[in-house]
Specification:
Elements (H helix, E strand, L loop, with lengths): L7 E8 L2 H5 L1 H5 L6 E6 L4 E7 L5 E7 L5 H6 L9 E8 L6 H9 L6 E2 L3 E6 L5 E7 L1 E2 L12 E5 L3 H4 L15 E11 L4 H12 L17 E6 L3 E8 L3 E6 L2 E7 L1
Parallel strand pairs: 1-4, 5-10, 11-12, 13-15
Antiparallel strand pairs: 1-5, 2-3, 2-7, 3-4, 6-9, 7-8, 8-10, 11-13, 14-15
Helix pairs in contact: 4-6
Pfam family, one: Glyoxalase_3
Protein name: Glyoxalase-like domain-containing protein
Organism: Penicillium salamii
């Protein structure tokens, strides 16, 4: 498959309460350097980021406490469990390349598909306006459990504005030595692996390996699928082996690269 269409791991979404987000710098102090995020265009959520040297980032996202509860429930992440990885995103070099992904789904052995690009964005604390489009997975019933398939985040303004890992490299230097994401493991409900396998085959068009924005070849850069309670698990690549507690109960492995 053309490298233009090879999925590029973009970011990992971790849901927290707004109170936790406001104090997240204390939680990650001594482990990670925190980068500012901003408020999303829909007015429902806000975030803060951890930028990794490979160009992927972790997004801590929270719903504002004063929003309409109905609007939160209607949001695709509004009913997910806080302090967990709830979703993850791929990107491509150009939004135009997504057409090839959609084309592969038309002949895939799966019930899943993706929406056409939906406009989104947020404003950074310095006033910079970011624009992108998201493509969300769906099935015959209308939607897929968040995290069981990645969504796509396709930039309409320069990605460097959204993820300044090269522009501000000091933000990617972490005390624990984490360098990037080595692998992503996805658990889906019992009996559903075969259906999801068809979807992942269509996403990748070959081996289940992703690229990272920096072009680094460290780590496995692989995706795996297994049965169990729906969840997403990561393995970091880093300068030293060990574990890191991102949030209470959310412990991730660091694999020496």
């Amino acid at each position: 498959m053309s490298n233009l269409q090879t999925p590029i791991l973009d970011h990992i979404v971790i849901l927290v309460s707004h109170e936790t987000l406001l104090g997240i710098s204390k939680q990650v102090d001594g482990q990670f350097t925190l980068a500012p995020g901003g408020n999303h265009a829909d007015g429902l959520t806000t975030n803060k980021l951890i930028l990794l040297p490979d160009g992927v980032y972790l997004e801590f996202i929270a719903f504002f406490d004063n929003i309409d509860p109905e609007k939160r429930r209607a949001h695709r992440w509004g009913n997910e469990k806080e302090n967990t990885i709830i979703d993850w995103a791929f990107t491509l070099r150009s939004e135009e390349d997504f057409g090839a992904v959609q084309q592969r789904f038309k002949s895939a052995e799966t019930e899943a598909s993706y929406t056409d690009p939906i406009a989104g964005g947020r404003t950074k604390p310095d006033g910079t306006v970011l624009k992108w489009a998201v493509c969300v997975p769906r099935n015959a019933q209308g939607k897929v459990i968040p995290g069981s398939l990645p969504f796509w985040c396709l930039d309409r303004t320069p990605r460097a504005n959204r993820v300044p890992y090269e522009v501000e490299p000091h933000l990617t230097q972490h005390p624990n030595g984490v360098q990037g994401i080595s692998s992503v493991s996805v658990h889906v409900p019992n009996g559903k692996v075969s259906s999801f396998k068809g979807a992942y085959d269509a996403i990748f068009g070959g081996a289940w390996n992703y690229q990272v924005p920096s072009g680094s070849t460290a780590g496995a850069r692989s995706v795996s699928l297994s049965e169990g309670e729906t969840s997403v698990r990561l393995v970091f690549s880093g300068l030293k082996q060990g574990n890191v507690e991102l949030l209470p109960g959310l412990v991730l492995e660091i694999e020496r690269q």
